[in-house]
Amino acid sequence: MTDECIHGFETELCDICAPRQRAASEIPTPTPRRTRITTSLRTVPGQAAAPASSLRSPVPDLPEARDFASLRAHHVTHVDNLDDIVGSGAILASDAVTPVVDVASAEVRAARAEATAPDGSPVSSHVPFTLSPDATRWDELRTGAEGERWSDAARRTRATEYVMLVVPVSAFGASVIVADQDAEAEDARFAVGPDAATNLIRRTDFTDPEMLGLELLAGPSVPFSAVAVIGVPNDRVRQSVKAVLKDHGGHAPRVAVFPPWFVPPVPAE
User: E strand or H helix at 257, and its extent?
Assistant: First the structure.
């Protein structure tokens, strides 16, 4: 049987542990560009024609449209909460569970309980996900949990104490809800269903191209069997997660060590 590396992949398939060397024949040879010469009735013989680009304003490159159904959703939780998630067989909404480590402040919990989702239920009755592993709220949490959104318990933790549960958005079905910002915000805009969600993320391409502020609401519970990958910060946490999965049996998603998810991105200069 093929061994599994610390990143959760088969050793020979991991580009970090066993980087593939490209043969010289695989390296593409650039094709010389062919210069196209055009003439016009207004061009004086022997005089080069003005470039076509000078006759019109440049058109900005539009971002490539993303299909919502092809995206992955991310739910971050403290590793001490994982045993209850695996044991119950589901990720539960915040108003249905008391986590071992609760990172949300009382004020945020109250605001989400009072805010209403498009289906008429409280925002707190849904399981929150992000559409980026570098989402703004997760970035706040992994850099010290400063601010009123976070509990004192959150400020006592470190980023390496968390795990990231990754679920394909296709697992959420037609009832999935996406907000263009925190779902409890008064001016949040919502989309219900995959088609509407595709349109919403397309409208935010210019204001939030990396989808750092978007929030996905699922539930009121998400079956643990929908989790495809559990991202962890190091091998120690990976062994701990694997022990929890083994103790409970049943569905065992791939556990992958991916440190970049747990380190704040370096700000652009």
Answer: strand 254-257
User: Rounded distance, CA 200 to CA 179, Å?
Assistant: 8
Residue 109 pLDDT > 60:
yes
At 66, the pLDDT band (50, 70, 90 cuts) reads: confident
Number of Cα atoms under 13 Å in the Cβ half of residue 153: 13
Report, as an integer, the average pLDDT of 70-86. 97
Task: Please state, in angstroms and rounded to a whole number, the distance separating the CA atoms of residues 26 and 10.
Answer: 24
Q: What is the pLDDT of residues 179-235, one digit of tens each?
A: 999 999 999 999 999 999 999 999 998 899 999 999 999 989 999 999 999 999 999
Report yes or no: 218 and 165 within 8 Å, Cβ to Cβ. no
pTM, whole model, 2 decimals?
0.77
d(CA 180, CA 169): 16
CA dihedral over 262, 264, 268, 269, signed as positive or negative: negative
pLDDT above 50: residue 53: no
* Percent share of the chain, pLDDT over 70: 74
Q: Which two tokens stand for residue 200?
A: 């919403």
The 10 Å Cβ neighbour count of residue 214 is: 26
User: What tokens were used for 30?
Assistant: 């650039």
Distance CA 193, CA 78 (A): 29
- β 162-168/72-78 pair status: antiparallel
Backbone angles phi, psi at 221, to 5 degrees: -145, 155
Beta bridge partners of 122: 116
Longest CA–CA span in the chain (Å) reads 84
Residue 158, C-beta contacts closer than 8 angstroms, at least 6 positions apart: none
